[in-house]
Amino acid sequence: MLIVNLDTHRPLVLLPGRDQRTLATWFRKYPEIQVVSRDRSGVYATAAREGAPQARQVADRWHLLKNIGDEPERMMYRHMPLIRLVVRELSLKKSPEPEISVPVASLRRPERLKQQTRKKRHQHWTEVMALHNKGCSFREISRITGLSRVTVSRWVRSGTFPEMSTRPPKRGLLDPWREWLKEQRESGNYNASRIWREMVAQGGGQAVKPSSGILLPNGVKAGTHRLLLPQDFLQCSG
């Protein structure tokens, strides 16, 4: 523990420990001490009362300013759920991009999940922008919203709501033949070789070759034979 003379701003002694007994013993050696400046530690307060009962205990300017600065932050953490709720409500009321709502029940499950994800993401974005407009730093916004600082920085710098990128489905080799293959299965044509020959005759079989075996309906396996599916056609190397 370092003890400093606040009148001269010079260190007096470096004590070997920070316990109450060590500090009280040192105080007793200097009965002329009139003021003890300390932080909020209860150990220091007790040591000063025991070792220098004649001294007046005060808090120095640095600790006072630090305590004043820490208290609003602690208060915000205590009321963070309410603060987030208020920020979201205000942000949604001032949102410049009203969404066209579609009844969720009328959507398929993938579309419902997609819409719910977008709605939640948009709420986060409006909250981030509202905090940024109030002058909050990226670090503060990240701490309040729970988002990473990288995400907060990217959203703020973009200036507009970042829609999720959607890639078009990759077109498969057998996409043009899907309806025709379905008709073959429904008509009872489950022979892979025969289907392949008919595709060749129509000018499309040269690009693919079938798995061997007789095709069964509904994907039922019989020995080594199985239903011919689009993924059973493999692109030829030659």
What does this entry look like structurally?
- The protein has 9 helices and 6 strands; from the N terminus they run ββαβαβαααααααββ.
- The radius of gyration is 38 Å and the shape is elongated.
- The chain has 3 domains: about 1-65, no CATH class; about 80-160; about 175-235, no CATH class.
- About 45% of the residues lie in helices and about 10% in strands.
- The strands form 3 sheets. Strands 1-2 form a two-stranded antiparallel ribbon. The chain has a two-stranded parallel sheet with strand order 3-4. Strands 5-6 form a two-stranded antiparallel ribbon.
- β1 (about 1-5) and β2 (about 10-15) form a beta hairpin.
- The chain starts with a strand and ends with a strand.
- By secondary structure, it is mainly alpha-helical.
Layout: helices, strands, pairs:
Blueprint: E1 2-5, E2 10-14, H1 20-28, E3 35-37, H2 42-51, E4 56-58, H3 61-78, H4 80-93, H5 109-133, H6 138-145, H7 149-158, H8 178-186, H9 192-201, E5 208-209, E6 234-235
Parallel strand pairs: 3-4
Antiparallel strand pairs: 1-2, 5-6
Helix pairs in contact: 1-2, 4-5, 5-6
Pfam families: DDE_Tnp_ISL3 (PF01610)
Organism: Escherichia coli
Protein name: Transposase
